[in-house]
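Appendix B. Chain record.
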Amino acid sequence: MVGRRRKNPKTRLSGSHQRCWIWGRNAVLQTLASDRWRPLSLLVADRTEATFRAELERQAHEREVEIQWVHYDQLTDRCHSTEHQGLMAMMPEYPYSALEESLLPTGRPAFLMVLEGIQDPHNFGAIIRSAEVFGVDAIVVGESGQCDVTPHVARASAGAVNEVTIARVPNVVDAARWMRDRGVRLLGAAGAAERNLVETTLTASIALAIGNEGSGLSEAMLAVCDQLVRIPQVGRTESLNAAVAAGILCYEVRRQRSESSTACE
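Structure tokens predicted for this chain:
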């Protein structure tokens, strides 16, 4: 075995033993390289080519991650998929950040996101992916009523869980108040809002609040928001999926800030 480290018996897995795995070469190598969420161990097919084997051994050794060489079919049986490309990583619980001043950037407006009760792993991962693509500084989630960051979420995020800061707090409404106290304007996404998104200035420090897929933002969160905004729609469907809405909101923030930056040049 390569890069062997002593396992902490108290280390908790990210989900059950059958659901704590990330697989695929790009996904696992990106996770190793970022070193934000370090795997507990790697399962690697014994028929892996020599060049890839050497690089994997090097990265695992640097991070003290154990490698187990197994038959290719064992990986297929483990993840119930043939898309593992001969590589799987066993993951511990995700290492959330704390809500603290360091989450707020200096020298430029903050761009934060508060998620209140996103429960679907695919939606959560897609939101994280959009947040990373459009430059969100940090995502804040609650300890209860919220989907955890799991390997399923990591796959849905296309690896963005390794690139964007995710903070977890006991109460997201209190976290929203904390942001407001530090000059961050809180904008809540609500389909019934009077204010149109594209008519709203988004160039100052802001936090986007996005609610549960079914019930939206709670009354308590709505009361804390400085303003509610809606995405303009022309169709008859009642509302957008939470992940799609998050992507549109993030895009509009980035669009306005890019135009503002260009105008100042």
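Further analysis of this model is presented in Appendix C.
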